[in-house]
Specification:
The chain is an alpha/beta fold and 250 residues long. Helices cover 27% and strands 18% of the residues.
């Protein structure tokens, strides 16, 4: 099974189509005004849940373990919790979140004074995760690009990677060819590294355009936290409009 690849912060139909055609397993959209990738969406969280019908809830704010547990129980869906990392000391919170979440996303800590928690193009020291003993699936993000994604996977043994600014020409503007290059580089890591990689992997080993139906992930944070729904083109029966349109093209 191959590495899970997520392209986050998409804002145009063109780049969405490029990411899906190139074989992305997940595509994300940001609903957080301070971000240059923010998409205006005047809907309540409940309406967004109804519209997207997410399979997984991604929490990228300052949720406590109790909050994560409550969200998981309220919506009856798996949860992926983002955990900012700078040093090994930041992993002290991991056992608590691992007890209530279904997946972990390791991201770089935002610098002091930052207006948003992610999408800043900053990487963390991947060696912090080098000897990590975590039973849950996990992904890494923060400062990834086509040139360093292989090293990030080699060091962390992560089962997935999440990129945003690393595939942009300017902040908030995705570059189609950079998206393709990143996905190619990420996919190549499984050929270069024969050792086992941890975390949930993708089943997409063939043509990424062969009738896959998108699933969605949603980050149900408060108004002070970023909201990042993610569509995951891995079939679950009947798809939504995006899936039907992709099927017509292939």
């Amino acid at each position: 099974m191959s590495l899970l690849v997520k392209i986050c912060g998409l804002s145009t139909r063109e780049t969405l189509d490029v990411a899906l055609a190139a074989g992305a397993d997940m595509v994300g959209f940001v609903f957080f005004p301070p971000s240059p990738r923010h998409l205006s969406l005047e809907k309540t969280f409940g309406n967004i849940m109804d519209a997207l019908q997410p399979d997984i809830l991604q929490l990228h704010g300052k949720e406590t373990t109790a909050r994560v547990r409550d969200i998981r129980q309220k919506f009856g869906l798996p949860v992926m919790k983002a955990l900012p990392v700078e040093t090994a000391a930041d992993l002290s919170a991991l056992p608590g979140y691992a007890a209530v979440a279904d997946r972990i996303l390791f991201d770089a800590c935002a610098p002091k004074g930052a207006t948003r928690p992610g999408g800043l193009g900053a990487a963390f020291d991947w060696h912090v995760l080098e000897n990590l003993d975590l039973k849950l699936p996990f992904m890494v993000s923060g400062g990834l690009n086509a040139a360093n994604v292989a090293e990030a996977v080699r060091v962390t043994r992560a089962g997935g990677v999440d990129v945003s600014s690393g595939v942009e020409r300017t902040p908030g503007v995705k570059d189609p060819e950079m998206i393709r290059e990143f996905i190619r580089a990420a996919r190549a890591t499984q050929l270069a590294s024969p050792l086992p990689v941890y975390g949930e992997r993708s089943d997409r080993l063939g043509d990424p355009g062969e009738g896959d139906s998108p699933r969605s992930q949603l980050s149900p944070n408060s108004q002070q936290e970023p909201l990042t729904p993610t569509l995951c083109p891995q079939g679950r029966g009947e798809g939504d409009e995006t899936a039907r349109q992709r099927g017509q093209k292939n």
